[in-house]
Amino acid sequence: MIQESKRLLEYDGKLFLTGKKAEGIKSLSSKANLILSGPMSFAKNGSVYLSEITKVAKSDITYPQSSYHDLQSIEEGDSNNLLSKAGIFGWDKVDEGSRFLIDTVPIYLSHFNQPPETLLDLGCGYGYLSVCASRFNFKRIIATDNNAGALIATERNLARIKIAYEVIGDDAGESIEENFDSIWSNPPFHSGFSLSTTVLNKFLKSSKNLLNPNGKCLFVVNKFIPIEKLASNYFKTIEILNKNNSFKVVLLSD
């Protein structure tokens, strides 16, 4: 967004940003100031800040040649050169939590009496979990996110797999009517820069509603997130399958 504002603003044009300190407004404004290179001022009204940054004619800041809108290849480890773009969570790397979830899948699958056939990737990002799921003999994969860029990247990434799939734009699966044998998620736990369990609760509630009677969820969260307590409002079985110094992977079922 900030780099696009540099391209679109006339010289001496102004960018205005507003938000709360806990949402990162000060650090975002500082980054914008580096890119636009002009004077910056702050005003405060209660807990909300307003920054004003001016674009100057010259800047020593260099920029990547690729556009904010372009899909870019991720060349890291087991990502198999997946495509992603700026604006998606963890867009320029393989998220370590998601990688840890995939490492735990064999343990997770051992809890099924019959192999699961359908998978919902809830909050799919650029589709890393869905692409990796193609290794585990699912017959149908649904990937959903509320980020348009994530949906574009996931569609491109899933086009390579030989499994029936669908990419759906939705808010935590609220409008999806199908039920699934398996639901995987690496849910967000921040609102702005503040810790929040609101979105995680929404993901848990949707998962409860979208899971088949004998289905099972697999969630990965940072180790300090109290998912066990939150999930107890929706699921009878809550089991930590794997954990390390940063993350825990949790199975949820009825």
UniProtKB/TrEMBL annotation:
- One Pfam family this chain carries? MTS
* Name of this chain's protein: 16S RNA g1207 methylase rsmC
The taxonomy runs: Bacteria, Pseudomonadati, Pseudomonadota, Gammaproteobacteria, Pseudomonadales
Query: What's one GO MF term for it?
Result: S-adenosylmethionine-dependent methyltransferase activity
Share an example GO biological-process annotation for this protein: rRNA processing
Q: Which UniProt keywords apply?
A: Cytoplasm, Methyltransferase, rRNA processing, S-adenosyl-L-methionine, Transferase
Q: Which Gene3D superfamilies match?
A: Vaccinia Virus protein VP39 (3.40.50.150)
Q: CDD domains in the record, alphabetically? A: AdoMet_MTases (cd02440)
- Domain (Methyltransferase small): residue spans on this chain: 81-250
